[in-house]
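Lab notebook page, bench 4
Experiment: in silico fold of construct C2
Operator: M.H.
Input chain length: 637 residues
Purpose: comparison with the prior construct
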Amino acid sequence: MVRDIGVTTPEQRQLEIATQFYGLNLNVLNANSENVDHALNRALEQEGTVAVAIEADALGMVNHKTLLRSLRHRSGGSVPLLVLGITAETNPDILKAWSGGAVVGVRRLASPLQLRYVVGRVTAMSQQLRDLEMPFPANDAFYFALAESDRTRAIMSVRNDRQIVPLFIETDLGQQEVFLLSRTVHSGDRVEGKADSVESAFAKVAPVMMFIKYCAGERGWHALHHYANLTIDDPWLREPYGHLSYKRLLTEMESHNFHTTIAFIPWNYDRSKAETVAIVRSHPERFSISIHGNNHDHEEFIESPSEQIADLKQALARMERFHSLTDIPYDKVMIFPHNIGSEEILEELKTYNFLATINSSNVPTDRSKLSDFLSALRPVTLAYGDFPSMIRRPAEMTSPNEFIAINAFLDNQLFFYSHHAMFEKGADAFNGTADAVNKIEPDTQWRSLGEIAKHLYFVKLRPDSNYDVMPFSSTFELDNTFARNVTFYVTKPESSSTPIASVSVDGRQFPFELRQGNMDLQIPVQAGGSSNVQILYKNDLDLASVSISKSSTHVYLLRMASDLRDITLSNFSVGRAITDSYYKHALSVRRVLLWGGILIVFCTWGAWRIFIIVKRKTSRRSTPEVFSHSLKIVTRK
């Protein structure tokens, strides 16, 4: 990157974020230094150079003819050129020269309302973002006035309520790819700012992320597959469970191609009904089971550390019993009830060889959200105990396309969740979202949480034609999707104090090194093959010694109250109102039981009154017939 002055501009910060995200190095040159053209030429001679970026304010200090000549004659082929940070103050003559006459002016678009990005149909750049609209991070923007040319394509535009204008374009300058990007962040503003989600973070760096991904290709971090999952919290295996019908949902999954994980409460391990067990067991490609707490009471993961560990052990023992009773496997992925636990319990999940945890937040309750902007672009983090903590999103979101497209573009997994109430109006409630996922990224694989956790890694091409690997889970499956034998160079963070029991590849012990808080592995995999890597940690788990009894009256009443809420109350409007209040106002279990009891008494009283009324009417209708019959008998005598 070439910049004008020796201070970090918003454009430089955007490039730093994008290059770090994709695992590249950013080499910064000052345009006011001597021999900047010579320094650029040396950088282009390096095999690892994938692009050149020049800030608009530095254009006048770079000889564009010399640079273009170096690009054309570069060993290994030319690389794309990006000019960024263009404003209305950029010298129009210089801009005309660098754009090959494509840009004839730069203007300003302002709006009292927030502007919106519109992604164009430049397939190699836009990919899953094609035709997407998303918020622009300001109320005004610079845009290009373009000459008539079939050489120029709008990659991204910005719109208000009256017009759509280009701000990120591609053109060619003597067969050289040239990209031009106007300033998208006000000078002096911080790029990072507040980012509450992947989508809001991406909007602040979107054009530069698209450019770097395009240039990096295989040499940037990327996933080998796209994955998605729908999780339904709480049900046990009965037909139906509230508004969830396993039979009907299976029909919709097969028709619209998606997969549902049941977040199963281990306390219910021995309650499964044979018919529902048969449905789930015979369709592992559509149904799966993960662990949802232990008792699912309100305090099980805010208790003392020893009690939390006891809950983890009991949850595993109960799930093993569930497996032996039903012959249905389960994934060691923890979905915490209500809220994610503390960092300490995440470390214990790692100790007891869980694959991951997934919740509405990936930040432990006793920790603050990371200030690192890069972490906002991934729904998974290893920042807490070196254990993968992932974010999931409500399945009922009204406009899912932005979430789907941005995360698919970033190679992030798509995790949706809900409860049985989502299907109140029918088993087809999720079909629209599933269809959107499959349309935006047709290669999406709908899998269980465990299967996705095992493929939760990114790869990038090395200079020696092998691949670096950045895994998250302690158990992962390396897929060689290439037409040649490949060695995967795995680097996994292992900075915690959790002792390692063993490392195996395809069931065989495998050598490893621990250096500077990382585990390094070199794993050869044949073309088209795969290898299963498993890192196990030392712990004191002895399932045979763990009691799975249901000795707590409090937990029993809570689970019965939950069944009452989901299976019985959900069938009545009054019951649904009670449930809504429970979630909105955090009603106590005692109040739910009280109101549920009142509803049952009311319904029982109503049924009794109806029975009495019907009985009386029946009695009145039958009385004249008896009297008449009696008269006839008397007359005959």
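Observations: Residues 625-637 have pLDDT under 50 and may be disordered. The two ends are 121 Å apart (CA to CA).
Next step: discuss at group meeting.
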